[in-house]
Design brief:
By secondary structure, the protein is α/β, with parallel strands linked by helices. The chain has 2 domains: about 190 residues, Rossmann fold (3-Layer(aba) Sandwich); about 110 residues, Rossmann fold, CATH 3.40.50.40. It is built from 10 helices and 15 strands. Helix 6 packs parallel to helix 7. The longest helix has 16 residues. It binds aspartic acid. The site of aspartic acid has 11 residues, from loops. This is L-asparaginase.
Length: about 375
């Protein structure tokens, strides 16, 4: 194996130590996945959450499969050669399709990761996750974790048992990245299909293809194959000095409203009436919306709701004051953050008491 493993000596986690993690997980179970791994290896903790990577299907078809059938320990054991990369332990945090990912699981994940790093239980973390919302979980974690140790999220597009299932190779490469010396200090990343992506930039761009992810505004931050881990760019970091994990889930309610031709302001007025603390408009083009929609957003600002203009377009930036007078209206622009990630950042800012439009804008711009 041509990866540079130079972590300090580390013993395998014993079952009793890991069992204490049960307090953080709904159905946490744990056991060493590679009992014979030498003690010189990096210690990787796999946190399984479900998704297609944990799914099984009829070998002839990926249609009608259940995500979340296979538990984390089995996933690890099913990957040939993975035990040569690291000393691996696995815990089950949840077992959901990521369309059902929620604040409760996010908080469990964040707390377990922080604990594992604070207590020096692991040198890196791998999170197995559904691909639908993997970008949101990665972005959330990057904003709340207080560590730069590698946290690698990974999924698959094809469930286990199907022809050319991509899960085993993706999981192998995720562990390879998390265990590599090159990944140290880079924090949260996503590995899919031989590519390494940053949380801020990655987005799902295909519903079914194995090459489903891209980072349209910046490109990948690295590449991985069974023989090498190569980084070609830095991971943009989050404004940690301002954000922290709130005491409890759920996060404040922030609604996303999707803009379209012939749009009136009713969905926005509903969001206001339903108690949203923030509204992200998935605008047309560079974050535009109809006059009626903008007037409804003005009503939201007057009620103290944080309004963020993002875009339904997959690449590019939403800049301030181009076709919309953001300064006058009190809006924030999301720049390169897509609506789903703009929502997460807005939730975290509100939860941390940051609601002033100027300060929210600074967080989006990364200029605290
Ligand atoms: N719906 C699945 C999920 O996000 C899709 C996948 O994992 O690829 O959990």
């Amino acid at each position: 194996m041509n990866i540079n493993i130079s972590y300090r000596l580390a013993a395998m986690l014993v079952a009793g130590l890991v069992a204490s993690a049960g307090a953080f997980a709904a159905d946490a179970t744990s056991q060493p996945a590679s009992a014979s791994a030498p003690a010189t290896m990096p210690r990787i903790l796999v946190l399984a959450t479900g998704g297609t990577i944990s799914g099984t299907a009829d070998p002839r078809s990926a249609i009608g499969y259940n995500s979340g059938n296979v538990k984390g320990q089995e996933l690890v054991r099913g990957v040939p050669g993975i035990e040569k990369l690291a000393s691996i332990d696995a815990e089950q945090i949840s077992n959901v399709g990521s369309q059902d990912m929620n604040d409760k699981i996010w908080f469990q994940l964040a707390r377990r990761i922080q604990e594992a790093f604070d207590k020096n239980e692991a040198d890196g973390i791998v999170i197995t996750h559904g691909t639908d919302t993997i970008e949101e979980t990665a972005f959330f974690l990057q904003n709340v974790l207080r560590s730069n140790k590698p946290v690698v999220l990974v999924g698959s597009m094809r469930p286990g048992g199907t022809t050319s299932a991509d899960g085993p190779n993706n999981l192998y490469e995720a562990v390879e990245v998390a265990a590599s010396a090159q990944a140290r200090g880079r924090g949260v990343m996503v590995v899919m299909n031989d590519q390494i992506h940053a949380p801020r930039w990655i987005t799902k761009t295909n519903t079914t293809a194995v090459q489903a992810f891209a980072s349209p505004n910046a490109g990948v931050i690295g590449y991985v194959d069974p023989a090498s881990v190569r980084f070609v760019a830095q991971v943009p970091q989050a404004p940690r000095e301002v954000l922290s994990l709130p005491a409890d889930a759920p996060l404040p309610r922030v609604d996303i409203v999707y803009a379209h031709a012939n749009m009136d302001g009713r969905q926005i007025d509903h969001a206001i009436a339903d108690g949203a603390k923030g509204i992200v408009i998935a605008g047309e083009g560079d974050g535009d919306a109809s006059k009626e929609a903008l007037a409804a957003l003005d009503r939201a600002v007057k009620k103290g709701i944080v309004v963020v203009r993002s875009t339904r377009v997959v690449s590019g930036f939403v800049n301030r004051n181009v076709e919309v007078d953001d300064d006058k209206r009190g809006f924030v622009v999301s720049l390169d953050l897509n609506p789903q990630k703009a929502r997460v950042l807005t939730q975290l800012l509100i939860a941390n008491g940051v609601t002033d439009a100027g300060k929210v804008q600074q967080a989006f711009s990364g200029t605290w």
